[in-house]
Amino acid sequence: MGCGVSAFTGLGRGGRSSVTRLASEEGASKGSLSPFTSPMAYAVLNWGFTEPRFSSRYNYSKENGTFTCKKCGNELYRSDDKYDSGSGWPSFTSAVVEGESSNVEKKPRDATGRFEIVCKSCGGHLGHVFPDGPSKAKGGTGWRHCVNGAALDFSKKTSDE
């Protein structure tokens, strides 16, 4: 039920500090690492890394609102579509649809047979989608969008909305 290979697999003894150092160096050299973006978010969005299971606060969030792309601010998911899949990553039954198309793009299967999902606006890696989500009979779509919380920001819905 996982989302993918951990961001730290294959990094040797450096682990998390290697990701931090590499993301900080690349972001600084390209001028694209916002002071508000963590090295993990940079590694997930730009390199396709996967954050460790159960590490995102959004995995546990039950607040009402909208999840947006941390890289570009594109509206991606609504809390109404979020559910606890037990996978260790925030999971959603579907993405926000504007007009006739989704704000999340599903890429063709990769070598492992998974479908990668990216932000349709900026191409930032979000996670993967699997055909094991809640069925339509249970109010779902049959798909599970398994998303790295590091790729998301959250806007709480106010009572006026």
Automatic annotation (TrEMBL):
The catalytic activity of this protein is classed by the Enzyme Commission as: 1.8.4.12
- Keyword set for this entry? Metal-binding, Oxidoreductase, Zinc
Looking at the record, which segments are called Disordered?
1-23
The molecular function terms of the Gene Ontology recorded here are:
metal ion binding; peptide-methionine (R)-S-oxide reductase activity
GO cellular component terms, semicolon-separated: cytoplasm
Q: Which Pfam families match?
A: SelR
Q: Which cofactors, if any, are listed as required? A: Zn(2+)
> What Gene3D superfamilies does this protein's entry cite?
Peptide methionine sulfoxide reductase (2.170.150.20)
Domain MsrB span(s) in chain numbering: 30-157
- Co-factor remark: Binds 1 zinc ion per subunit.
- One Gene Ontology term from the biological process aspect of the record: response to oxidative stress
Q: Which reaction does it catalyse?
A: L-methionyl-[protein] + [thioredoxin]-disulfide + H2O = L-methionyl-(R)-S-oxide-[protein] + [thioredoxin]-dithiol
Q: Which InterPro entries match?
A: Met_Sox_Rdtase_MsrB, Met_Sox_Rdtase_MsrB_dom, Mss4-like_sf
Record bears the keyword 4Fe-4S? no
* Family, similarity comment: Belongs to the MsrB Met sulfoxide reductase family.
Q: Which NCBIfam families does the record match to this protein?
A: peptide-methionine (R)-S-oxide reductase MsrB
Designated name of the protein? Peptide-methionine (R)-S-oxide reductase
Organism in which the protein naturally occurs: Triparma columacea
Q: What is the lineage of its organism?
A: Eukaryota, Sar, Stramenopiles, Ochrophyta, Bolidophyceae
